[in-house]
Amino acid sequence: MQLVTEENITDLAVERWATAEDPRLAELMTALVRHLHDFAREVRLTEAEWMAAMQWLTHTGQISDEKREEFILASDVFGLSMLVVQMNHRLDPRATPATVLGPFHIEGSPELEYGADMSQGLPGTPLFISGVVKDLDGNAVPGALLDLWQADNEGLYESQHADVDEARLRAKYRTREDGTYCVRTVAPLGYTIPMDGPVGALISRTGISHYRPAHVHFLLNVPGYEPLITHLFQEGAEYLDSDVVFGTKAELVVPFEHREPGETPDGGTSAEPWLEARYDFVLQKQA
Ligand code: BEZ
Ligand code: FE
Fold first, then answer.
1. Of 263, 245, 249, 262, which is closest to residue 104 (Cα–Cα)?
2. Could you give the angle at the alpha carbon of 256 between the alpha carbons of 255 and 258, nearest 5°?
């Protein structure tokens, strides 16, 4: 019989988890056990702190459902989600970089025509986003589907409005033969991540800003190309350098230029002042 001591418990636990049948699972679990034990030793974890951590994890599970992913939010604010994105999408520097998906993407958004309005009359400053989807050599990618979603001009997604049931401020646009796309929407506002759960409770005990800078999400899943999940951020927006989920990248910050009433990029006209963002998405071919 092997007696457990403070000195040998890590080796014993690692040995046990190394028996996982799948070698990758064995690698993951033995490293996890080793790092957890090292962590506990480094901070000399007390029993009260261990219990508080267990209760925090329990609460994180209890508050999660199909609409709320508190564990993913925790991963986001720890910088883990963005680290995993970066390690797994080491794209050519010419390609548009990837960022976190976030919890608000929904499958099945309606496909709209070039320049059609995805804000459906919601209040806000009209915003046109247009450009080209191309490959690393600058060739246009026709027929590429851009799946967009964003918060409204109060900084809220529909699931955060008690009185909104239907999907809104989300749509798909397909590039034309020359690779061009054109989106009409309203300017988003920066927003706070949900602070009424265990992640918020933890953040409230720190000096961490709980805001994200104003952005629009894009997902491009084009056959033959690396899938791209990214955002465009408004240049000059608040919180660009303190994004609570570490999602900002310099290449994704674009000016939202003020335009006077008149002709708009969809070929129409606007009777009110509007904002224009131009961005060319560069996709990398799949290896
Ligand atoms: C978002 O941008 O929608 C988001 C991303 C991560 C955490 C919370 C929100
Ligand atoms: Fe968002």
1. 245
2. 120
Specify the residue with its C-alpha closest to ligand 1, atom 4. 102
The stretches of the chain forming alpha helices (DSSP H) are 9-17, 23-43, 47-63, 70-77, 80-88, 198-203
Please choose, from the candidates 157, 155, 169, 176, the residue with its C-alpha nearest in 3D space to the C-alpha of residue 266: 176
Q: What is the pTM of this model?
A: 0.91
Q: Which atom of ligand 1 is nearest to the CA of 217?
A: 2
**How many residues appear in the chain?**
287
Together in a domain, 41 and 79 = no
Instruction: Judge if 142 and 223 occupy the same domain.
Output: yes
Nearest ligand to the CA atom of 194:
1
Domain that holds residue 35: 1-45
What is the CB < 6 Å shell around ligand 1?
Answer: 73, 76, 100, 102-104, 193, 212, 245
Domain assignment present for residue 218? The answer is yes
Give residue 68's pLDDT.
85
The atom of ligand 1 lying closest to the CA of 81 is 6
Cα of 217 from ligand 2 centre, angstroms: 6
Tokens describing residue 255: 């000016």
Q: Other C-beta atoms within 10 Å of 233: how many?
A: 26
107 has pLDDT over 80 = yes
- Cα separation, 168 vs 128, in Å, equals 17
Within-domain flag for 242: yes
Q: Summarize the confidence of residues 220-247 as an average pLDDT.
A: 96
Ligand (nearest to CA of 101): 1
Instruction: Tell me, yes or no, whether 204 lies in a domain.
Output: yes
The Cα angle at residue 146 between residues 141 and 149, in degrees rounded to 5: 160
Is 93 found in the same domain as 16? no
Beta bridge partners of 127: 185, 275
CA 277–ligand 1 middle distance (angstroms): 21
Residue 158 above 90 pLDDT? Answer: no
* Distance (Å) from CA 263 to ligand 1 centroid: 33
